[in-house]
Each structure stands twice: as C-alpha cells, then as structure tokens.
Design the sequence.
C-alpha cells in the first residue's frame, strides 16, 4: 500500500489568524523564542495495492481538490516504504 | 408565466428552504435542483443556498464544485444565466472559479451570527438592479469562513470595474476592503456572504431588504436583456 | 492487528462448555447478584458479548435503576390530556398541536463527555438528542442548550466553555438547526462537573408518528448511517483487550466519540423521506449504548424475536470483536425495521443521499435476540431481560445534615447597600456579573435563523418557532434550572424552575402544554443526593399535576460529583407552549415612547439563593422564594389573552437579578430609555433585587392601561404601574434615586464573557 | 533560524469526517484507487536564531496547544538546515 502525504499551506501573503493566535498564546506556555507560526493541512492518502501512477494521481488530487491555488500552496511526498519514493516539490 | 428559479440542494445544504421561500415571496417559482442532476430543468436563474455542502470538508465549497449540477451551472452562467450564491453558495462560486477570490476563516476565528449592515455598491448586476447604489441594507450574516481574500491586483481590478457588489459597514470577519459580495465581469453571477433570503419577512428577519435581490433578477429576466 | 476470529470468539457453545470461566463482571460495573441473575436468566454463564450487553443495559444510564422508583410519580400524577400522543418510555414525548400537527421535544445531558473533550462531547450531545427526535418521525426544527460551568475565572472554564460552545454551535449549525435559546450559569459547584444539557424539538404530521417496535416476523433489520468504529467503547474494553494489541498506547479505545453533523443531516433527510414513503415499520436511534440498546429495545417492544448477523455491520476499524461492535457508540446511526418487499427501495433511497444502509438481520418469532458472528452464535437472550427487566433499587434517602443550618442562614439578614449611590453601583455590578451579563459571545456562535421560521430566539424569554406558514401556528420553548434554589430546597427549587420555564413561555403569549426535564445530580449511592433527587422529582410531578400539563419525557444524569462533593442538585425544566398565530407573540423590549411600564405580581423580601446574595456576598443560605402555581396559571392565562389584543407591547419575566436586571435587559434590547417611579413606601433595594417568583414586567401601549388593569383585577393579579418608556431618557432613570446612562449600562452588561475568558 | 514542523493527526480509531468526505469526492476527479484519506494539521514553527531547546519547546507547544491528546497524536520534526536535525518520533 502506498502512502502519499500532501501538505497544504496558506500562501505567505494571506493572513493566518489561527497561526497568529497560537503565536500569541506561546508566552503563556513559557515559550518566547518563536518568530512565526503557520498552520496548514496535512493530508494522508493511502492508495490501493495495485494503484498506478500514484504521483500523477496525487498531483491531480492536490491541485484540483486539496489546495485552492488562490490562497494555498502544496507539496506532495510519497512516503518511504512505497514503491515510488522521494519528496516531490511544489509546482 | 412567472420566472422559474432553480435552487440547488447539495448534501449538506441548509438554507435551501429559505431560498425557496424568498423566491416565492418575490413572486417567482422555486424549482429544486439536485446536486446529481445534469440538466437544469429549464430554469431561468439559479440560487446556490447557504449551508455546509459535503460537510464543508477541506474548504467550504471545495467538494460541491465537483458536483454534476455545477458543470451545468458553469456552462449556463457562461451563457449569461443569472446565478447567485449566498454564504456557502458564494464559497462554491469562488471554488468553481466563477467568481474571483476566496473565502477563508474569519479573522476572529469564530463562527459569528449577527445582522450585517451593508452598502449596495452597484446596480449593474442581474441581482441588484433594483437597488439604488449606496443604499444601506441589513441582512443576517452567519458564518465561520467568510473573510474575503484575493491578491491586490484582483482587488484593484474589482474596484476599478465596479464589481464589488456589497460592502460591510461594520466588517464582521476581516474581509479585505470590507467586501461582502462580488460579481463576475458580465454581472450575471453574484456571490455574497450575508443572507438576503433571511431578510424577507418582518416577523423572522432583521429587515425585508432582501426581497430586492430576487425582485432584481425578475426584472432582469422580464426585460430579457443582460446588461 | 488482525486476529484469528475462530479462536477468540466466545460463543454460546463455548459458554456452555466452560461454565466456570472467570468473567470480569465486576470490572464491567455489575454487582454479584446482578451477575448471578444473568446466569439464572440464561441458564448458563453469559458469553463475552452477552456480558457486555447486560452490563450496558443494566447500567444506571440505561436502566434507570436508582431513579425508576421515583420517576413513576410522573406517570401517576401526570394530568390526562388528549394532546399527549406519546409519553414517558418513548424516545421523546409527542404532543398534538392541532388536528394535523404534533410536536416532539426532549432534553438530555452530555455532562461527562463534555468535560473530557468539550467540543466533541457537547457536539455529540446535540447529535444524540436530534436522533431521538427523528426516531419519533419528526423533522427536527430547533435546538436549545442549558450550560453550567465552574467559576468563570477558573482556568478550566477557559478550556471547557469555548469548547462546549464550539461543539454545540458546530453541530447545530452544520446540521442546520436554529438554536433558539438556553441558559448559561457559573458556579464553583460545577467545577469538576460542568453540565451540558441539550434540547431538541421536532414537528411531524400526526400520521407520521413512528414506533420503535420490531414487529412482523420476517421483516428486515437495517442499519443506516455511519460505519461502526472503536469509539465510545471504553467501558467494555476489559473484555479481551489483552489480545487486542501489543501496544497499550495504541489501544486507547477512546471513551470519546467524534460527531459528523454532515452525516446526521443526511440521516434526517433520508429518514423523513422513508417515513413519508411509508417504508418503515419501526425505527430506533443508536445512542448511548449503540447496537446493544437499539437491538434489545426494538426487539423487546416488538414481537420479541430478532436474528442479527453481526459481521454484516460495516466497520471502520480492523479487528473489532463482537462485543466491540455491540457496544460501540459510533455516532450518526439509526436502526430501521422494514418490510422485506420494501428493503431494496430503502437501500436505494439511502444510497441516493450517499448514506450507507445495510440489512443486518430479521425479525423472528423466536422470542430470543440471537446474534451470530461469522456463523457462530455469540448472543442468545430474551430481549426483555435486557431492555425492561433490569435491576431496580430502592436506595436509601437522607436529608443532608447541613440543610437545617443552611436554612436558618438567611440572605435577608445580609448587609444591604444603604445609599442610592450604593444601590446604583449594585445594579451595575450585578449586570456585569457572570450569570447575569449578556451572553451574546456564546449565542452569536449559533445559527438562529436557518429555516426562516424563528420568530423569537435569544435573548427573548422563550424561543418561538413558526410551524405552519399558512396558519401561523407556532410553539414556544424555554429551558430553565436553578441549582442554588434547589440546593436550599430541592422540592421548591424544582418547582421554581418549572414555574420559571412555564412563565417564560407564557410571557411570549404562548400557552404551556408540556414538560420535559433533565435531572442532574451527584451519586445516587449517597443518601443525601438520593433525597435531593426524590424531593426534586416529587416537586416536578406535583407541579405538573397542579399546572395541568404532563411531563412527557426527560433524562437523568447521576454521578455529577468530584470526590465527595456533588454538584448542586440541578433539575433543568423544559416547557413547551403553543401559540395560534406567531404574529401575535409578545417580544422583549420597551415598546414605543410613552408606553406604560408596569409590574404584575408581588414583590416580597426574598433574597435567599438570589444572585444578589451570590454576587455581592458569595452567600448561599436560607429558604428559596415561595412558589405559587395557581398564580402562575392565572398569569399565563392573562398573558395568552392579552397577546391576542393590542394591549401589550412587550413583556419580560423577572428571574435572577430581579426587577433591576429585567430593566437592564429591556433597555439594552430597545432603543428607548425608562423613567421609573417606585411605588410609595417600597424599599428600593428590595424592590429592585428580590427574586420573588410569579412576576412579569409588561409594557402597555398608551390608552390600554385601564383594559390591562381590569384584566388583572378580574383574575386577582396585582399590577403596579412603574413608569413610562421614553425616547428622550438616556438609559434608566429611577426617580428620586439615580440615573444610569445607556452607555454605562451597556458597558457593564455587554462583552463580559469574552473578556473574562481572556479573549 | 530553525524551523520545526508539528504534524497533528486524529488517532486512527477516531472518525475523520473530513477525510471521509474527500474520499467520497475522488471518483468525481477520476481517481479510483484510494483506500483512505485522513486530514490533519501541519504546523510550521519558526524559532528565533538564538532559541535554545528547540525540540523540548516544540514538544511543549504541540502537547499543550496544538494537539488534543484525547483524540489526536502528533509528531515533531526539526527541519534540515536547522541546528538540530532529524525527525523525532511521537511520544
Ligand atoms: N427525568 C425524567 N423525566 C421523565 N422521563 C424520563 C426522565 N428520565 C428518563 N425519562 C424517560 O425514560 C425513557 C428512557 O430514557 P432515555 O434512556 O434517556 O431515552 P433514550 O433511550 O431515548 O435516550 C425516555 O422515555 C425518557 O423520556
Ligand atoms: Mg433514544
């Protein structure tokens, strides 16, 4: 079974209020040395045993569905233990 | 014969009944459209209602975009059919690239339900032609992800071409340039976050200002022209 | 993870062959004699699956073993009314509104899960109560929530409250139900045991009323909705868990369930479509005890026999054993009993909505509930022994030792503000206090208008929803509790809450017709708690009898206790009323400028248990205000009468915080100010802060004063003119005493919750 | 500047309605070979130049703020180019 991870992050110019809220809460945890926090999505996709063209299919899913290009970037990586390997850069 | 306005029900649509009531009160005939339908049942215009289509998984409207009915709506919109998207419907229109920009998590991070005071910025759309530009209206706004964002160039272009349709007077969610609703270049597709269909009866809404949205499209249709 | 099923499964055959096998009945919460009774019923030791089922069905939560002897009073004392179409014992009570429409409503607790995981705990509480409403054949049309937390400044409140509100909002908003009201209180007694009670209401054509009976031999048993996973089976995980996984961390079978309101929305639409098409013989929601409860209750209510092939249940996790599947509390599932000729259509209609539906068994005439797993019988029991014949306890009762002392420690003797300036400041301090301040930080997170039928919601005294657009007929509901009064006297306290909910409904112009309740108490094993419980139930049953409206259902939540400290006994009462035309509802506010403000009811020196005693002195003692249900009935009748005329512009119930707080709320909700002149000889402090019950502030349009006064006098209801509403008065003007401008009032009252939570 | 990534995923036995909804939509994209989709959070934390005990601090943040231990697991990894390296297992 091949596992693909798609990471989706808001573009840097889009305000991430959730990240800001976490950053703002850090001093209360006694953590003071953080410059920024950004919160995005991690999507884990398990393909069937016999699935073909995993990388290509993953890109289609990421590009069409998982990320909205107006506001987000994504990265696709095929996990170790899969038939195909290595992280794949964002488009 | 009164105009027929299609109201789409996706799994998870919630304000479809309200949209039907508003259409009915404005004197048109509401026609239910199912997300799986390929044909549009001969409707004259389409209303994409609020709700949480497909549970709003991933991003609001992201999955609804792939429904069968949206393929037909995209084609019809391209040919000039009036389409309005309210709340989740607006999100679906942005996700479908029928309207520019995107709707993201409110800046204050919470779902908020409050009547919103809006200014109608233009009467040059199928859905606002009966409003005097500059009119103030009150529609309920209730959403967690209604912050309108787009890049500066897009925003400038929207302003320059008069495509900002509604603007918040008390920005409730951090939307860029207080934008509550926008239209496409042709002015037949309009999206907005606040709910005109919840402002159609004095008994249940904060105003009856919302009746003008459907009334506008009826005028638009009866004149048989697109502006 | 996968295991060899044939080796591990404990079948009836194995149980027969190994009568002496040690079983973890005690770990499962069964008592020695209960385990022995199970063996007697079965004539052998139970299998693991059977043991799991008995332990669940005979738990306090499912069997009402401690409360049942007391709850019987409801059935005995309930007034007979032709309106009651389904009552106690059903998923939710159903009352007729007119010859066509009926309404069903119920309140239920989700206290403990909401403490462990506030967001999901509260969300699944809402999901659960909605399914009870669907199970009656109704379309859910609104929800309400009654919340109690520890002190607002306690760090844990900052964890629990936002999560609970987020959960209730998320679930209700996503499933598309307006939230039309509720209550929020803070008291240290709820610190370790916050209370999350949710109410749902639904409407149905009377002909669509559904039953939970699995009748008709040969009918098909269909499981509808979400897949079944490992969630919520924490309780039975002692069964066979050793073999389940090497890694203990991994095997954390969470007691918490995650809800999916999207699936619930589909469940609503599919079920209603199936009911309308006449495709369903019986229906039961899957709630607290999952399949175990749904199978045994439907079988017990029907012809008494059922056969289920458990391996057909669609699963979400690998390696689930039969007892896991039976015990799982996975959300968003319903059980349907369907004629075999219609089964295919049921499956097809479900799939059209994208909802899973699977035939898992059949109704039989065997009188036994038989569950097979891959062809091996793991359960073979008489279903009534699970559903109806659980243990019944007569637990000992004892009045709490401290009650005598508490009752003489009266708040009426506490130091009171002496000067006008001090009273003025007290008005502001009270308005800003956690229990009285504006709750919009919470309620703005809830959709209140979806469906377009919400006529009144927060902050009105009751939620009012239109049922029929043509006739305008509608309902009003209020949900009220007061743990402080109930701590001082559970009988009177419960009646005060009942009276308040009843009055809140009446204040909108509706006529109260039915009651639902949620009884939140400490441990039933503590005789003091049991005494409180008995007194509260008796108070409610007597109150319902007196008011002439039935208790139609409810829920008991015990063990709300941290160590030896129980919460305040907290009966929460929901009252439902009917209004012929929602256009006639009486709103909150101040009407038009120049209208008369008056008070109906009598103000006594009653401050024990009051918010004033709480806010200013941190005091709880004395005896609660008197309750007069005769008076409440007259008041309700009067208000319903006046709602049909032009004689009332606005009305507002007086409760916590007394007249002062009612004025603050009316002013903040209107654009007008109020000029008030207290009656001659009235002590301003008492008049403003007493919490005497049975009082309503009314706003009478100019020229209607005499008509209203006459109507009151005819009913023997005292009415006192207090002043006028006035566009030129800034805020509250209390003649001869003080002024408080609108800005100052609003600054005190608004924005407190978020600020106190650090937002 | 050190960058830490905290991945927060729902525990495997907890229902992931978002993942289910995405899975259900894939056939419409023409993707048919996927067995499961799980959606979690990816949190990128940038520490200041001089920050100490990055790993420890990240764990505190993850544990106290980012993940809800009742329903979620997390992994902390310190990214390449940072002073400390290598992915760090979940607790
Ligand atoms: N406090 C109460 N007052 C009246 N009826 C109650 C009360 N508690 C429980 N009941 C009734 O007992 C029955 C079983 O309750 P419960 O187990 O909560 O129902 P369900 O199985 O639908 O969740 C229901 O009909 C319920 O209305
Ligand atoms: Mg039930």
Sequence:
């Amino acid at each position: 079974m091949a596992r693909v991870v798609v990471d989706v992050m808001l573009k840097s110019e889009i305000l991430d209020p959730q990240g800001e809220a976490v950053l703002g809460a850090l001093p209360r945890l006694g953590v003071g040395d953080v410059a920024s926090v950004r919160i995005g999505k991690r999507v884990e996709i398990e393909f069937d045993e016999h699935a073909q063209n995993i990388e290509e299919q993953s890109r289609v899913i990421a590009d069409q569905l998982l990320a909205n290009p107006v506001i987000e970037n994504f990265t696709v990586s095929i996990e170790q233990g899969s038939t195909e390997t290595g992280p794949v850069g964002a488009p | 014969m009164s105009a027929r306005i299609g109201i789409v029900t996706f799994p998870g649509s919630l304000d479809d009944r309200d949209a039907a009531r508003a259409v009915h009160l404005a004197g048109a005939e509401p026609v239910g459209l199912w997300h799986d339908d390929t044909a549009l049942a001969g409707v004259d215009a389409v209303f994409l209602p609020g709700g949480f289509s497909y549970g709003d998984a991933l991003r609001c409207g992201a999955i609804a975009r792939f429904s069968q009915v949206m393929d037909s709506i995209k084609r019809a919109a391209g040919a000039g059919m009036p389409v309005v998207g309210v709340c989740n419907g607006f999100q679906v229109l942005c996700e479908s690239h029928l309207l520019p920009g995107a709707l993201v998590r409110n800046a204050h991070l919470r779902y908020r339900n409050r009547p919103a005071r809006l200014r109608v910025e233009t009467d040059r759309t199928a859905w606002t032609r009966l409003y005097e530009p500059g009119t103030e209206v009150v529609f309920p706004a209730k959403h967690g992800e209604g912050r309108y964002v787009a890049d500066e160039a897009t925003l400038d272009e929207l302003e320059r071409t008069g495509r900002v349709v509604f603007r918040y007077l008390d920005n409730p969610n951090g939307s860029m340039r207080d934008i509550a609703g926008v239209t496409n270049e042709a002015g037949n597709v309009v999206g907005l976050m606040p709910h005109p269909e919840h402002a159609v009866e004095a008994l249940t809404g904060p105003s009856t200002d919302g009746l003008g949205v459907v009334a506008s499209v009826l005028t638009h249709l009866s004149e048989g022209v697109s502006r | 993870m996968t295991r060899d099923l044939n080796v591990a499964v404990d079948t009836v055959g194995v149980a027969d062959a190994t009568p002496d096998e040690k079983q973890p009945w005690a770990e499962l919460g069964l008592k020695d004699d209960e385990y022995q009774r199970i063996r007697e019923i079965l004539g052998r030791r139970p299998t693991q699956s059977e043991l799991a089922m008995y332990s669940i069905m005979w738990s306090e939560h499912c069997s009402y073993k401690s409360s049942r002897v007391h709850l019987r009073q409801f059935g005995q004392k309930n007034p007979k009314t032709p309106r009651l179409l389904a009552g106690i014992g059903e998923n939710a009570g159903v009352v007729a509104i007119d010859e066509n429409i009926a309404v069903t409503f119920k309140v239920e607790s989700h206290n403990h899960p909401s403490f462990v995981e506030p967001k999901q705990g509260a969300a699944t509480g809402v999901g659960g109560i909605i399914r009870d409403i669907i199970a009656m054949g109704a379309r859910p049309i609104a929800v309400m929530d009654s919340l109690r937390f520890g002190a607002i400044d306690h760090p844990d409140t900052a964890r629990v409250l936002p999560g609970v509100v987020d959960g209730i909002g998320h679930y209700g908003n996503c499933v598309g139900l307006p939230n039309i009201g509720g209550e929020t209180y803070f008291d240290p007694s709820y610190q370790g045991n916050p209370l999350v009670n949710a109410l749902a209401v639904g409407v149905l054509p009377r002909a669509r009323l559904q039953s939970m009976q699995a009748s008709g031999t040969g009918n098909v048993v269909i499981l509808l909705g979400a897949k079944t996973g490992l969630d919520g089976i924490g309780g039975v995980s002692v069964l066979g868990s050793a073999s389940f996984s090497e890694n203990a961390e991994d095997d954390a079978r969470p007691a918490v369930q995650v809800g999916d309101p999207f699936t619930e929305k589909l469940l609503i639409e599919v079920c209603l479509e199936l009911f309308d098409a006449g495709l369903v013989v019986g229906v039961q929601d899957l709630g607290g005890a999952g399949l175990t409860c749904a199978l045994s209750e439907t079988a017990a209510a029907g012809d008494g026999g059922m056969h289920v092939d458990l391996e057909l249940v669609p699963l979400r996790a690998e390696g689930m054993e039969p007892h896991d599947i039976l015990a799982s509390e996975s959300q968003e599932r319903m059980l349907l009993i369907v004629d075999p000729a219609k089964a295919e259509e049921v499956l097809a209609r479900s799939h059209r909505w994208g909802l899973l539906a699977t035939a898992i068994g059949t109704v039989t005439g065997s009188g036994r509930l038989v569950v097979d797993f891959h062809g091996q019988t793991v359960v073979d029991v008489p279903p009534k022994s699970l559903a109806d014949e659980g243990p019944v306890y007569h637990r000992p009762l004892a009045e709490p030792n401290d009650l005598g002392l508490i009752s003489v420690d009266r708040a009426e003797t506490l130091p009171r503000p002496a000067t006008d300036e001090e009273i003025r400041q007290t008005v502001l301090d009270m308005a800003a206090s956690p229990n009285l301040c504006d709750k919009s930080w919470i309620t703005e997170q809830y959709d209140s208008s979806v469906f377009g039928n919400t006529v009144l919601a927060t902050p009105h005294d009751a939620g009012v929803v239109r049922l029929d657009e043509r006739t305008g007929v509608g309902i009003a509901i209020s949900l009220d509790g007061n743990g402080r009064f109930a701590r001082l006297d559970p009988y009177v306290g419960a009646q005060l809450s009942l009276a308040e909910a009843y009055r809140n409904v009446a204040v909108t112009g509706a006529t109260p017709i039915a009651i639902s309740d949620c009884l939140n108490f400490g441990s039933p094993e503590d005789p003091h708690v049991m005494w409180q419980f008995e007194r509260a139930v008796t108070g409610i049953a007597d109150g319902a009898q007196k008011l002439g409206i039935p208790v139609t259902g409810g829920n008991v939540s015990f063990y709300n206790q941290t160590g030896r400290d129980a919460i305040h006994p907290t009966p929460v009462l929901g009252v439902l009323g009917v209004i012929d035309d929602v256009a006639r509802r009486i709103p909150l506010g101040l009407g038009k400028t120049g209208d008369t403000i008056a008070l109906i009811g009598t103000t006594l020196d009653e401050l024990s248990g009051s918010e004033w005693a709480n806010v200013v002195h941190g005091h709880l003692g004395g005896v609660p205000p008197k309750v007069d249900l005769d008076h409440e009935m007259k008041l309700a009748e009067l208000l319903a009468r006046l709602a049909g005329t032009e004689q009332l512009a606005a009305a507002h119930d007086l409760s916590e915080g007394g007249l002062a707080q009612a004025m603050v709320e009316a002013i903040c909700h209107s654009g007008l100010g109020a000029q008030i002149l207290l009656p001659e000889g009235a002590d301003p402090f008492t008049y403003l802060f007493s919490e005497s019950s049975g009082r309503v502030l009314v706003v009478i349009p100019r020229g209607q004063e005499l008509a209203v006064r006459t109507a009151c006098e005819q009913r023997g209801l005292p009415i006192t003119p207090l002043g006028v509403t006035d566009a030129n008065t800034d805020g509250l003007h209390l003649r001869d005493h003080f002024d408080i401008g609108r800005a100052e009032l609003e600054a005190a009252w608004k924005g407190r919750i978020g600020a106190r939570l650090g937002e």
